[in-house]
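Hey, sorry to bother you again with one of my protein questions. A protein chain has come my way and I'm curious about its shape. I'm sending you its amino acid sequence along with the backbone structure tokens. I owe you a coffee for this, so here goes:
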Amino acid sequence: MLEQRIEQHFIDSADLKYQAAQVLSKPIAAAVSAILASVTSGGKVLACGNGGSAADAQHFAAEFVGRFERERPELGAIALTTDSSILTAIANDYSYDHIFSKQVRALGQAGDVLLAITTSGNSSNVLAAIQAAHEREMTVVALTGKGGGKMGQALRETDVHICVPHDRTARIQEVHLLVIHCMCDGVDTQLLGDQESSE
């Protein structure tokens, strides 16, 4: 019984990825273009999210600053989820809703990209970060699911919305990780040329 349930998780995850490939390939390519335009002009990516999405923000920054699959010059990315003193000071002195937006206003510059990750599209602190990014004339790449929630209304035409067509958080997060890998690979391919990845 348990093994069947586990197998079903694999099947459901694979099915969603297969279904989402065509839907998401265009916005992912647009995200790659936006990120590439930023980093090749001296810009950077600021990434944020809560819980599993915080882990995804950190994962993206690690792949960008270190490397993805090939050696290349370091690329600028900062996860806004990692400095416990900043996070707790802002949450304590203001509110949890401001933990990302204040960092975006402090660190973000025109031409930078905000990678905003929320499975529901409704995280108030991520929505506040988007508003701050717009004030700084940054482009937003939003990773959501569940129809996009409030995020859909918060984005501008120049932003990129990658909305996983599913309602289950675990499945959305699994696709978000694949999207992050696609973005990293896309940027590397544009910078370094096409090459088979080494295992």
